[in-house]
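Newbie here. two chains, one complex. Structure please?
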Amino acid sequence: MTMNQNQDANPFKQRDEYYFQQRFEDYSVSSTYIPMRDGVKIAVTICLPKGLSLGEKIPALLYQTRYHRAHHLRLPFRWIWNEIVDYYPKTELFTAGGYAVIYVDVRGCGASYGYRIGPFSEEEVKDGCDVADWIIKQPWSDGNVISNGISYTGFTAEWLATNNHPSVKSVMPGHSGWDPFVDMILPGGCFNTAFIQLWSFYGKQLDQNTQKQMKILVPFRWLLMRGVKHVHSDINFTELKKAIQDHNINEAVFDNIYEVNYRDDVVKIGDVVSSFGDRSIFTHQQDLQKLNIPIYSWASWLDANFADVVIERFLNLTNPQIAIIGDWNHGAHLPANPFDPSRAAVVPSPHERIKTEISFFNKVLKGNFSEKTLYYYTMGEERWKKSEIWPPLGQTLQRWYLQENNGFSKEEPEANEGADDYKVNYRATTGFFNRWMGPAGTPIRYTTRTKDDEKLLLYTSLPLENDLEITGNPIITLYLSSTHEDGAVFVYLEDVDEEGNVTYFTDGNLRLIHRKISSEKPPYKTLIPYHTFLKKDALPLVPNEVSEIKFGLHATSVLVKKGHRIRLAIAGADKEVFKRYPAKGKPIITIERNKKNPSFIDIPIINRE
Amino acid sequence: MEEFFPKLSDIFNEKIEIRENKEQLLIELKINKEDLIPGDLGKPNEVKEMIRKFGGVKEDISMDVAVDEKANIITIKLQNNEDFETISTAMKNLWERASNLLIEAFSVEPGTVGKFKDLGDFDEN
């Protein structure tokens, strides 16, 4: 057993004196508008524990969302539940633990005034400071502000920390990115049409406070909610109507970025010109480290590129950190472990997970938090592990080669000739419930791989003689030629059991014009080859000329069992998810697998001896 | 929220008291929720829409709805015995129907409209 394989590594089973304790039974809900520095009024809902003793001061959890801070429920649900009924932080737990919870509609959204020029605009981020200023002036405030969130709200929590507001003591970004270009929008340089289109449309409905389309998008939301909750004093919805008028000029995300091909492509919205780099948190690493606030960063191996984000924060930021990578869907409300598809409910339950999160904040605010630990779950082994370094101790790269007759093994090819042609099948897909649609909160399940693989070029190993733990980022090197200058490669790693059932566990992809590996220093430390995705580095293929294509797959942690086989599956498209490259034509890709050009993948394995 | 699903119907019964006066063709709903804010009790049209959608009342039944925000009471005045019986029956099933629909809506996958297609759109304004 290596040092990282600790039996007591389940982060949700850790107990100390800071562990969640219920202090309050119930909470009150109020709301108001807070004027920002430029006069824009921001809607907030304030939840306070009922029964605070006279003069008692408490910390505040700040939750800034673009998905409505609170909901005006339909009858009869409004008669039994309050306006924040379905929200992630579980208000009842935070308030029970002695925290105020402050929900904010970010500018241009919900009941807030203003408009959006894009996600996480400079003004939106600065608003976090103004709200923190307002919080610490409240009679119940002890001057401490913390922030958490999942997805967009995870971003806003992390962005809040870049302000270096002295009251902000810790943040907890969950399932969020810090380099959105590769984390979810154009992973590998391929445009994530499915999610961006849906997200853009959904956002538009929310900002206009129209529920009709929710019937298709999120049926429970349509049935339960009339729209955003007005600020309580706004009985006739006068303010709400004015605020929504402000949103008329909000961004149309999908329309604005659909034609983006490069990281430095500029997007012009109104008078504002920006590119992805401008609004990526990784460009604020120095700001994040300035006050050295503890960060609790968490995600899943299966959700977008967010596990890699957790690892990158861990590698790059000097802040004290708890980092957690599990096996659930976006936001951890559904199980997503491909090795355990029959699991009925997510583990830990949201209730238990949030108690752990509160315990972390307790420790930061009341104790002295200085550790830096990454907890990760190995799928297939079904076990939590932890490490204070990444990659974990015992990791080595094991090279597996693509072989003739669709074989896959550790032996280097010796033949001078050998290649496989693959006519790109543009019907190939991972479907709707995959890591790239994951940020929509959908289930994540790659359960049809046995059939899907029929459209792909496959390389499958012999049955393994021993269990094989794979933990980290596999890196693929393909020597390939194509009939076209542009195209894309999608690589899947899969487990094939004794009965031939195929279980996906990770993948990676690259648009081939982005194949250049830069010799420049990456803007943040990463464990995979550095592709800049900048226009200046674009390198179209020379048709029918062999090129080296090298890129990283998403980090994973799995145990492939003895007797199972490993499969490398290659596609040139993912119809339901990504834009088609090239837009027209039917490329034939030739993968070399010979002595001169041995295509291979370096698999990060853990020595279990 | 889903943790409440198994007992949702009971929560409705606990928080909302239904009183009927057949002679006067009145149905009263007394809402026992402490922290309702002004307006939360609802507007007459919202109440009517609730009865249509969640009570499953298809006929166009004439009713007068009065909302007393001070007493947290909603009064539904019907025009005749037949209408009274229809709404009375609808109210008896409403909590369960609303609960079941919500549970079903929560469990369907995005993009699956299913039986909600027949429910039509809400008109509460």
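Moderator note: The CA atoms of residues 11 and 102 of chain B lie 14 Å apart. Chain B has one domain: 2-106. Thread marked as resolved.
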